[in-house]
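Entry 14. Two folds queued back to back today. First construct below, sequence then structure tokens.
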Amino acid sequence: MRKPSSSWSTRVVLAALSAASYHSTAWADGPVSALCADPEQTKVIQERFKTPNRNLVDSLRQELRISESAILSGLPQERAVGVSGSQFQAVWVQLHTWPDAVVAIRSGGHVLEVHGPIHAGEPSKVSKYFNLAPEGHGLSGHLRPDLVSAIYAVKLPGRNGDDHGVIFYDSAGEAAFGVYVPSEYVRPDAAGMQRFQDTWSRMQSMPAACPGQRLD
């Protein structure tokens, strides 16, 4: 039986946040954009991440009452790189190169995990779906790139060191799903980490989710 990955705790914490009642429409005093922290919030986020822990995203979200995507937008540059949702296909091409992955799908407080390679896909000719190729085991189905507003590659504190993944966010700054480098309570596979780093580097050259957001 497969053991839960070391990134499982981070995924569950973030999924619980998505099910909570912290929606941008209720934040009358929040930032204009649900996706981006304002300068003062960014200062708080970066100061707190000088001493990170695996529950810090949860704590900051409750404290600042902003979306998960907004929290990530204010992280130090070594912790997150965010790009516009318009870069969905360019990011997906990168994920297709990963030798293995864990896809965490969040819905109603539940976390569903799919283990296996990330398959290639292409836009439908008759709908807004991005259709994944049904290539053996791993994730299959139909995605909606037009509903993705921001995408973040992240290095977040986990149970045993940092967890590494790419998370896709909707227009409210809530996570739809994430793709993570597998880890079984040990260091992640070297080949998987190299592909993650390649994806990270490629995303740094794409249009930013929150231009001019970084203070560091």
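Second construct, same run, same settings:
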Amino acid sequence: MLNHNSTTDNMFFEMGNIADYTLEELKGFTYRQGVNFWQEGLQIATLDEYLDVFVGTETRPQIEIKADSYDMLYTVVESVEAKGLTEQAIVISFDFGQLEVIHELNPDIELWYLIDEITEEEIAVAAAKGWTVSLV
């Protein structure tokens, strides 16, 4: 499921951890705020649903990895590849190790390493991998 946080508290009337709900339950949640939240039938998106929006366009999907687990990285790469978006997608993360795993799985996916403070050391580490550094 795609959501900025691991909980539903900020966007939906239903409260709790996303991991504690089934796909069917999450699809039934009602938005209480956000872009177009008043649209009838608006549902939380899966990764595949999100990527479908970009298929056949020149717009580049950006996928921020926020989970602590590395298990889902394989799913992200498989989904990007299955949708034919390998050279279009951008995967971003604050976790350097996650980006390394993504790179090992598919070196053609563009990676952005997010950091809180740009230092010469961080730039050197990212540059050595050929990655973009972005200050957020």
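Quick look at the second one. The longest helix spans residues 72-82. Residues 26 and 44 are 7 Å apart (CA to CA).
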